């Protein structure tokens, strides 16, 4: 079987074009791998859950008998230790779970720290 002379340059050009397209697509085109997309989706779902449960945390803070003391401690604390305070109170522990949700605690402390 005879292969035409133009076949080798055509195949080389197609391979080079495919490589260039992949580089441009992943660098500037916004292409992602399956693992990256799963990681992004997981992060987004955790953020959405925390956002949806923030009113629950705020309501628990209002119904807690020690709320005034805890809020005073929260306002006096540094921004780095506020999340731990909310976790310790149990306000960021969702129903049916044993440990507090750190993303919910962060969202809750941000809402509680806002000026009224």
List its traits:
mainly alpha
Radius of gyration (Å): 26 Å
Q: How many structural domains in the coordinates?
A: 1
How much of the sequence is in beta strands? under 5%
Percentage of residues assigned to helices:
55-70%
Distance between the termini: 83 Å
Mean pLDDT: 90
Give helix and strand order, one letter per element, not per position.
Answer: HHHHH
The main pleated sheet reads as:
none
Secondary-structure class: mainly alpha
**Uncertain residue ranges:** none
Transmembrane segments: 12-32
Keywords: Membrane, Transmembrane, Transmembrane helix
Describe the structure.
- By secondary structure, the chain is mainly α.
- It has one domain (7-113).
- It contains 5 helices and no strands.
- α3 (67-76) runs antiparallel to α4 and α4 packs across α5 (102-113).
- The chain is rod-shaped, with a radius of gyration of 26 Å.
- The termini are far apart.
- The model has no long low-confidence stretch (mean pLDDT 90).
Q: Secondary structure elements and their pairing?
A:
Blueprint: H1 7-27, H2 34-63, H3 67-76, H4 82-89, H5 102-113
Keywords: Membrane, Transmembrane, Transmembrane helix
Transmembrane segments: 12-32
